[in-house]
Amino acid sequence: MERYDLRKHKDNFYDRMTEIIEKEAKSGEVIIFLFELGDFTSVQKSSDIMKELGHDVLNSIKFNEVDWTLVVKRKSS
Q1: φ and ψ of 45, to 5 deg
Q2: Which of 59, 43, 52 is nearest to 75 (CA)?
Q3: CA distance readout (Å), 40 to 6, 25, 56, 60
Q4: Strand 67-73 vs strand 2-5: parallel, antiparallel, or unpaired?
Q5: Domain boundaries, the chain
Q6: In what order do the strands lie in the sheet with 30-36?
Q7: Check: CATH 3.30.110.40 for 2-73?
Q8: Burial category of 43 from C-beta neighbours within 10 Å (exposed 0-12, middle 13-18, buried 19 and up)
Q9: pLDDT of res. 41
Q10: Comparing 65 with 71, which gets the higher pLDDT?
């Protein structure tokens, strides 16, 4: 299990999140993404991207007042 802090990417973290899950994560590995919440659009979009790529969204939860965590299991090869 790895945790990736994407807060420095602000609202443009989707490409980096996709790169991590598709190229850096091992088959079946659970990844925790931390990103800045803003409005809830980023939460839904992140979940939708992961589902479209075939990965399992295990959890999606508010981390604190401004941050969100998305827990994703990479699809098995």
Answers
A1: -65, -40
A2: 52
A3: 16, 26, 19, 11
A4: unpaired
A5: 2-73
A6: 2-5, 30-36, 67-73, 56-62
A7: yes
A8: middle
A9: 87
A10: 71
